Amino acid sequence: MRLLLLAPPGAGKGTQGERLAAWSGAHHIAAGDLLRAEAGAGSLLGREIAAYQARGDLVPDRIVLDVLTPAVVEAAARGGYVLDGFPRTLPQATAAAELAARLGVGLQAAVYLHAPEAVLTRRLLDRAGLGRRADDRAEVIRHRLEVYAEATAPLVAYYTERGILVAVDADQSPDSVTAAIQAGLSALPLTGLRNLG
Ligand code: ADP
Q1: Is the CB of 56 under 6 A from ligand 1?
Q2: Confidence of residue 193 (pLDDT cuts 50, 70, 90)
Q3: What is the rounded average pLDDT of the residues 7-32?
């Protein structure tokens, strides 16, 4: 299976991405995790990435594509992928479409998880209490939600136009969200021949 998860921060992309990968046998590719790993490596590029992430700004498309492309190419060749957090801008979506066309393996579904902003903010602030991520702070959370609305939300229309959007209400228990995604996917004609573009 080849699908992507499109969702604002706090919607549960990471949790659902892992579950969908386990369910379908595809590889879970979490853009934020791959970028955080690169940041943690301490290279010059890593320090640049860390600065964008700490501010809640998007990492520039060119860097994201350099980091993500090898993982996507490898997963496409071995059982498919669940992309979590990539693409996140229209230029990334068109680059991903070109890559998919070149590899001859198009995206089959774009799963859109949505929830009211108050729910997202509460979840992120709860997680902030655990202190695991530098960008889980009130002012950075607000900024990440703004960046999502501006740069990423337009992808909902992009994938709707391509007939592969599966919209799911993420304001329910994780199990209910998983079940709703699976139901939505089984209603789609997963031809595997459809390209991202
Ligand atoms: P969340 O969705 O909760 O913000 P992620 O781990 O997916 O968490 O992303 C964390 C940060 O990593 C983002 O705020 C951004 O700085 C960077 N990032 C992740 N994916 C992308 C992407 N596709 N393009 C640009 N930046 C990204």
Answers
A1: yes
A2: very low
A3: 96
Alpha carbons 177 and 67: distance in angstroms, whole number: 29
pLDDT in tens, 62-97: 999 999 999 999 999 998 999 999 999 999 999 999
Quick check: CB of 165 below 6 Å from ligand 1?
A: no
What pLDDT score was predicted for residue 196? 32
CA proximity to 165, closest of 102, 95, 93: 93
| Residue among 59, 84, 133 whose CB has most ligand 1 atoms within 8 A, to mutate | 59
pTM: 0.93
